[in-house]
Design goal:
Protein name: MOSC domain-containing protein
Organism: Noviluteimonas gilva
Strand content: 25-35%
Number of domains: 1
CATH architecture: Beta Barrel
CATH topology: M1 Pyruvate Kinase, Domain 3
Radius of gyration: 16 Å
Shape: globular
Structural class: alpha+beta
Largest sheet: 7 strands, mixed, barrel
Order of helices and strands: HEEEEEHEEEHHEEE
GO molecular function, one term: catalytic activity
């Protein structure tokens, strides 16, 4: 994994520049394995655990929430041969628009009352072949989104803003 540039370097300052907030467009939960995701308008996030009602609650915490970029959905659909792709099919908890999720990797950010920290890319799994058809896995490569851990629990809703938290040390 490439080193993160120091925050006082030119590249570090560019990578930290997020002048606009994003927005939550969709929230989904899957209560257990092998069931469809259920859309919801609001969700409670538990510190260090996950989203109440989602099967990953109580896991390691590094994957407490999975997010995907709304702007990537049309590209994933086109690359997998579909006119559109419903968010539930991609098995991510939150669809976000207006802010580049990759810029939140390794950073803290806020959605509603909740503070999260981007832990890793949310790479696609082999189930995307089943969901999207042949080539579905490759259609999602580098567009699978972001995994995040919940640092401060609370509630967030569809329509809430998504914004990076400024690093006090940087």
């Amino acid at each position: 994994m490439p080193a993160i540039p120091p925050p006082d370097s030119a590249l570090g300052r560019l990578m930290a520049t997020l002048p606009r907030a994003g927005r939550v467009e969709w929230i989904g939960l899957r209560p257990k394995r092998d069931v469809e995701m259920a859309s919801t308008q609001a969700v409670e996030a538990q510190t260090g655990k996950g989203l109440v009602g989602d099967r990953y609650t109580g896991g390691s915490g590094k994957r407490g929430v999975t997010l995907i970029q709304a702007e990537h959905l049309p590209a994933i659909a086109a690359l997998s041969g579909h006119a559109s792709v419903p968010p539930a099919l991609l098995r991510r908890n939150v669809v976000v628009s207006g802010i580049p999720l990759i810029a939140l990797k390794g950073r803290r950010f806020r959605i509603g009352d909740v503070v999260l920290e981007g832990t890793d890319s949310c790479d696609p799994c082999s189930r995307m072949e089943e969901a999207l058809g042949p080539g579905g896995f490759n259609a999602m490569r580098h567009m699978g989104g972001l995994c995040a851990r919940i640092v401060e629990g609370g509630t967030f809703r569809v329509g809430d803003s998504v914004s990076a938290i400024e690093d006090k040390d940087g």
